[in-house]
Write a structure and sequence with these properties.
about 80 residues; two-stranded antiparallel ribbon
């Protein structure tokens, strides 16, 4: 993990950090990739994973994301890539 200092001039990022102090935040970029922003006080729980699985909002989000995704059978992927 890498620590990055945030300038006091980064108002948007500092607002997100304040929100994350109260409750973990899920950030989603334009491509749909998701990231969790959480206080280091909560980090140990994330590392262990116990509190993450108890986070009903996060689990609901992940279940919805998983159910909305189209899947492609492995055989079709192999065929598209020319693999056996």
């Amino acid at each position: 993990m890498k620590a990055i200092a945030v300038s006091s001039r980064s108002k948007t990022l500092n607002e997100l950090l304040k929100k994350a102090q109260r409750k973990s935040v899920i950030l989603q970029d334009a491509e749909g990739r998701c990231f969790v922003l959480a206080s280091m006080q909560d980090y140990e729980a994330f590392e262990v994973g116990e509190d993450v699985t108890k986070n009903k909002k996060l689990m609901k989000f992940l279940a919805e994301r998983r159910s909305n995704e189209k899947t492609i059978p492995l055989s079709e992927v192999k065929a598209r890539l020319g693999l056996k």
